[in-house]
Here is the input.
Amino acid sequence: MLNEDSQRPDADGVQPFTVGVPDAPPLEIQSPAITALACIGGLLVPGLGHLILKRWVRGALLMFAVLVMFGTGIAMNGSLYKLPEAESLMSFNTLGIFANAGAGLAYLLTIQSGGGEGVPTTQTFDYGWAYLIVAGLLNYLAVLDAFDIARGRKP
Here is the structure.
């Protein structure tokens, strides 16, 4: 706050401070077919959507993170939600199935091979269950990220 008694800086000869921000390159919008391929591929194999969009490092990191998290959950004796019968589609287990299914083919292959039963008496059971849930949900976020990249909303 300036008082009448305070000195005012001389405006002559003072240049305004500006930051030179280079213009961002235009974002490339992919075709609807490539967008759909990236999203479906990302749902089936974590990180594949980013690899399709030539985001190599991000795709590899997401693939590594989701699959290691899924594998860690299985190794910690966590349990996977199984596909329900037709009469029990509307239950709280449906949310767990949705979360686990986000891991894509890893979930389906583990269920088909009879894995993911879990051992509730082990000390790591709850942690393993949480890792399995978070792995699927993280992959859903990765698919949304791939969609945003494909539609030109994000670099």
User: Anything to note?
Assistant: The chain has six helices and no strands. The chain has a mean pLDDT of 88.
